[in-house]
Sequence to fold (894 residues):
Amino acid sequence: MFDSSMINLSRLQFAITAMYHFIFVPLTLGLAMLLGIMETVYVMTGKSIWKDMTKYWGMLFGINFAMGVATGITMEFQFGTNWAYYSQYVGDIFGAPLAIEGMMAFFLEATFVGLFFFGWNKLSKLQHLIVTWLLALGSSLSALWILIANGWMQYPVGSHFNFETMRMEVTNFSAVIFNPVAQAKFVHTISAGYVTGSVFVMAISAYFLLRQRNIAFAKRSMTVAASFGLASALSVVVLGDESGYLATHHQHMKVAAIESMWQTEKAPAAFTLVGLPSNTMHKTEFAIKIPYVLGLITTRSIHDQLPGIIDLVQTAKVQIRSGMQAYGALLALRKNPNDKTAKVILDAHSSDLGYGLLLKRYTDDPTNATLQEIDKAAWDTVPQSVASLFWSFRVMVACGFFLIALFGTAFYLSTKRSFITPWFLKIALFSLPIPWLASEMGWYVAEHGRQPWVIEGVLPTFLGTSSLPVSDLWISVTGFILFYTALAIVEASLMIKYIRLGPDGMVKNKTGAAL
Amino acid sequence: MIDYEFLRVVWWLLLGVLLIAFAIMDGFDLGAVALLPFVGKTDLERRVVINTVGPVWEGNQVWFILGGGAIFAAWPYVYAISFSGFYLAMFLVLVTFIIRPVAFKYRSKLEDSRWRHTWDWIMCIAGITTSILLGVAVGNVLQGVPFHFDSDLRVFYTGSFFGLLNPFALLCGLVSLCMLLMHGGFYLSIKASGQVAERAVKLARFFAWLLIVLFALGGVWVSLGDIGYQMTSVVSMVGPSNPMHKQVIALSGAWLNNYALHPWMRLMPVLGFLGAAAAWFLSKKQAKKTAFISSAISLAGVVGTAGVSMFPFLLPSSSNPSESLTVWDASSSQLTLQIMFICAVIFVPMIVAYTTWVFRVLRGPVTQASIEADSKDMY
Fold:
């Protein structure tokens, strides 16, 4: 019934376009704030070097921003093009934050970005500063609404299933907005963006200092990046921990998979530092464990037990049976919307309806699923690649701690006024890719860790797709890969050109008015 | 809670407002850039064109994105079915919408003339393609597209990409193209200068006339051709959003019935024609700004005509007319519509206010001298 190559291609396309989009987003978030800080110092002190900094980093910001906006359009439209059933099944809730993001945040950001570049001679100093801050505010608010939407996918609160419209509908919108998962994710993600901006400024400043160019410019830039980056990096880790803690309560399977904990352990559970998890053998080989640590971090107690994957699969079986009843009641209500008994059954089991829908992969009629089908569907609740989750999570965390150390060192050196320490500058320069690596790994953990669900416990991913011919998907996937690769080459070469040129090169080359 | 049928009508109106705002705001930059190789002969002239839209295209483009978001939030069925049904066309639109900004940003970053020429043509072709495709989409919506639901309300679209490119839809594509080229031309007559502005205004007048002719032809086709749908059963205006509970038939000429039923709707086509004619006339009188405003009114009239002709239909199904999407059975829940309505009431006026302020700050034409003076900072 469901064409698996169509589903896999849809997922691949979403993953490619989303991860590509997120190359540009964190840099936009971080650089916008740094521009605001730099320009504030300019307005307060009147020293023109701070204006030069705002303009130079602003130009690099602009090259990146255009790509962020452009690739964001794909994201906004892709739910409809490739995830049509998802869109109509949860559009009542999920569409709202996206539309509000457009109205409240994206408009602000996109309208003022033009003035940021073209308004230097048309606005007073203070007006321009306000424009810059509105730009930064817009980009951060944008992240807020997107993460409210994403948070709902992880932990679908404030909504119920309506059998008359065959979809999820909102019951409590403030629960959707103040979803604890969304709030923790927002601060975690936005801090990660600030870290990315700071590493970017620091790495390029290090490049100038290593070449003994733009020394006054680079030192100041580095001071700003080091202090802002340190605060942000600490916030990433603290809020990341909060995200993990919340996931412990709402997404048991994700946590168990990240930790590759197959069996439920006696509390507090041990933390597996490294190992080789295997989805087929249901165990983690060559595991090196640290006693107690996992239980303490995730449950913040010494008594609470953390369920393992195998036990969670057993729980899923119970939920699937309950979901089968819900689906049966739904069929009865379709025949007779006034069927009172069916309504009572549906109300009692509707929170497990999604588990019943998992069976649709194996049978058109979930109400009569065989034991074998139930067993298969229950094992489907385990993400397909536990090992990749285990490792991406560890890479992300390692990057986070590395960056704290990096910013800590930078901050220390800045108080000593001795940035020009070659070993440090080299490390700072080569750390440039680290925040991107961490962000992409983080999103992979968040999204693959939720599989097989597109909405946790509510809608299986394979049901969410559009009904498209596979040939169309091949065209679009290939098209996106070629198109995005070409853009990446153009973008990267321009970025490199302007970084090499530097603020000094730009002043030399200028043909007209002040930079 | 606010009345459900009121909210549904309001969201139908707001959808119209957003699409019209998109046509007017993003329309002028699509049109201006589509005219690029024809109004700008030298590199400097082309930079004038690009810099007239340079500082504002990002904000304009958000109308498109917000349009998508609002359809998603208020009319999830419409969003799901039209976007997935028009899959390859949507993919093309996305490519053109992605490549244009990139072209603006990157074109003048290198001196090489081949580099710049390539980007110029990319911008022009992207602008033309988008303008036509958006019109083609509306043309198909007017004719109805082939889709049906299964019992779980999963939608199946049975048309193809080349099926979208039928004669009536292509006519609508040309209407859309003329409309945006006219609008872009009048915009350039205000914001550009010298020869560029002169060439642009001539082209704009030509496309204003062509628009009037093609729009009239479209009207004739809708009244005589095999186009239109009519509801034949009673549908609850406050019922659950499930498009399976009504009867609809295909009926030639049915799209004109609303004009007899609600005479005020005639205003829309009238504005479409009059706006274009007035823009032509006013530009002859050198009243550039009022000409541009008239052109905007014409756009509102043309887009509005498509909307009011179909009311209460949003997306008719040509293969299973009774499963068509209408204002009464394809919306979000009452609560969602209400929340979104409140947000729109708060934020849309704010958007209009600060957008106006930005345009005020940027007022005045872009000249070749201003670009030469600030070569590094300009697009």
